[in-house]
Structures are given as C-alpha cells and as structure tokens.
Amino acid sequence: MELGEAQGILDEASAQIQSIEQDGEQLGKQWQVGLRGLARRNEHLTETQTALTALEDELVTRRASLKGAENDILKSQEELAQVAEGTRVAESEKNHLASRLSQIHEETDRVQQRLNAAHTAVQRIAAEVDAVKEAKKGTEREIDRTEVQIQGVTQQAHLASERAKGIASETEGNRRITSAASKGLTSLQEQVTATDTTVRLTLNQVERAQLDILSAKELMNGLQANMDEMDAEVKAKGAVVERYETQIRRNSDMVEKRASDIARFMAKLDEYKQSASAGTEDTGPLEATLHNLSKEIQSMRKDSRALEDRWLARQGDLVSLLAKVDLMKKSVRQKTRQKEVLEDRLRVIEEQIQKRQKDIAQLKRDQDQAHAQLQRLNLDISRGNDERQAVEKDNLRLQSEFVAQLAVLEEKAKGLEAAAVESRNNRQAILNEILEIEKQ
C-alpha cells in the first residue's frame, strides 16, 4: 500500500513536472511580460523543488521500510537455518537410535538362537521321557544341559532388557543435548537457496528415519514372534509336566496295585503258615514271590521319586520360562513406546518442515515483490532526477536568455531615456526661442 502511495506521489510529481514544462513553454512565450512572469516561474520552480524534495524524503522513508523488510526476511532465514540445524541434530539422534536398535536386533537374534537350541533340547527331553526307565542317565544329562541353556537364555534376555534401558536413558540424554544444542545455535544462513537445499537434505533424512522406523517395526514383529515361540515352548513344557504327572499317577496306581497284591499274598502267606504249622503245605515259593514283589515295589518307589524330582525340576523350568516371557513382553512394550515416540517426533518434524517450506516460499515471493518494487522506485527516482535536471537546465537557459533580453531592454531604455532627455531639452530650447520671439 505504501508503494502504491509512493507511485501516486511519483505520478503527481510527473504531472507537476509536465505542468512545469508547460509553464516553461508559457514563460518562453511570455518572457517579454517581464519580471512578474519570472517571479511566478521562480515560484513554480520553488514549489516543484519542494515537491521533489518531499518525494525524495518519501523515497528515503520507503527505502528504510524496505530495508526493515529485508532485515525481517534475513531474521526469518536465520530462524529457518536454526530449525534446519535442529532437524539435522534430531536426524543424527535418530540414526544413533537406529544403530542402537540394530544392535538390539543382533542381540535378539542371538537370544533367538539360544531359544531355538533350548527348544530343540526340550523336544529331545520330551522324546526321551517316553523311555525314561531305559535311558535314565542320558535323560538326566539332557535335563542338565537344558537347564544350563535356559540360564544362558535368561541371562541374554536380562542383558537385552538392560541394553533397552540404556537406550532409553541415552534417548533422554540425546533429547536434552538436542534441546541445549537448539538453544545454543547461532550460525546464520544468508541465502534462501541454501535453506532450500538444507530442507531437501532434511527430507531425505526424514525418509531414512522412516525406513529406520520400519526396521524398528520389523524388530517389534521379530520380538512378538519370539514371544509366540516362548509361549509355544511354555505349552510344550506344560505338556511335558502333564506327561510326568500322568506317569507319576500311573506308578502310584501300580504301587497301590502291588501293595494290594502284597496284602493278598501276605494273607495267603499267613494261611500257608498256619497250614505249614499244621504240616499240610510248603511256603517256600510264596516267600520267594513275596520277596520279589517287595524288591519290585522298592524299585518302582525309587522310580516314582525320580519322576517326582524331575516333575519339580520341570515346574522350575516352567516358572523360569514364564519369567522370561514377562521380560520379553516388557521389552516389547518398551520398544513399542520408543517407536511411538519416534513416530510422533517424525510427524512433528514433517509438520515443521512443511511449515518452513511454506514460509520460505512466502518469503521468496515477498522478497521478489520487494525487489521489483525497489527497482521500480529506483527507476522512477532516476527518471525524476533526469527530468528535474532537464527542467533545471531549461530554467537556467531561460534565465540566461531572459537576463540577456533584460540587458538589451535596459540598453534600449537608456537610449530612450537619453532621447527623451534630448527631446525635452530641444523642446525647452524651442520654447525658449518662441518666448524670445514673442518678446521681440
């Protein structure tokens, strides 16, 4: 709007200059009128010079306003540079987090290998349980190896959890470092094109961050698969425990059956002993049978105790696996929260980038308009100066001509005055002669 007013003032100045030229032509035509016309022309010239001076002051004011607008544009560019730098720092932080997530992924792969080994060992144990009486020592060794592997898996899961906590603490520290770095950024970026380049680089980094987030999602899926496998392993352990319980119940039933047989044989033995005391039958075979049954009962009780011990061990394994599953679930929840935080930060950064791109485009348009208006003003000022110089030259020329004409008129006036004096003298002489003639 101010530029429009300046253009109006320039138009008025142009009209005034044209009026001055017309006045100059009229003065050129009416130079014989005299000093009054010259004074009037000088007044017009003074008014024109005053208007041009006011126009120059207005142009100086407009230039100062444009300078302030350019300073505002530079400040906006500096803010954009700071935002770009903050975005770069955030992207470096994301890259660091991505590397940490990759390390966690490697640790998870190693844990998965251990879990697969443990699962294979459990399957071997389940196959050997069916023949527990025939391969008692081998089964115990497999159980020991399984326990060692489960302990190793537990330690690996604990290490993974500790590393995840370390990543969380590092993320918080990086966030504080990013905040402090954003506050302390003082570097400036003078050109809008450089800012556009930085924004494009930031967009590329955001795309890489999106790929990192996809990798993190894949890691979450892998952890979920590990949890599913752990659940399957827990179910397999539960099935093994159920088989042990079934075997224990079967052995208990067999022991009870053997106990009833022993009671029956004892009753028969008592009958035979009574008969033997009467001298009717021989009790030797029955005593041998009773002795064999007692040994068999002791052996079955020993096997039953061994099965109970194994059942207790499997219960401990089941508890350990449940604890491990809980740790994995906590790790998955933590990774999910980290993923959500990264997605939120990515969304905020994308919104900031879009906003800054719009601001940059608007600043470009404003800067182009300001430059165009400034060029038009400079052109108008140059034209006004040229026209003013031309008018001043015309005025000087007209003044010189007018002074020369005045000098000529003064010379003529002097000649006329001398002629008038001479005429008066002649007239007086004639009058004197007439008077003398009349007196005579």
TrEMBL record:
<feature type="coiled-coil region">
    <location>
        <begin position="206"/>
        <end position="233"/>
    </location>
</feature>
<dbReference type="GO" id="GO:0035082">
    <property type="term" value="P:axoneme assembly"/>
</dbReference>
<feature type="coiled-coil region">
    <location>
        <begin position="290"/>
        <end position="426"/>
    </location>
</feature>
<feature type="coiled-coil region">
    <location>
        <begin position="122"/>
        <end position="156"/>
    </location>
</feature>
<keyword id="KW-0175">Coiled coil</keyword>
<dbReference type="InterPro" id="IPR037386">
    <property type="entry name" value="CCDC40"/>
</dbReference>
<protein>
    <submittedName>
        <fullName>Uncharacterized protein</fullName>
    </submittedName>
</protein>
<feature type="coiled-coil region">
    <location>
        <begin position="3"/>
        <end position="30"/>
    </location>
</feature>
<dbReference type="GO" id="GO:0005737">
    <property type="term" value="C:cytoplasm"/>
</dbReference>
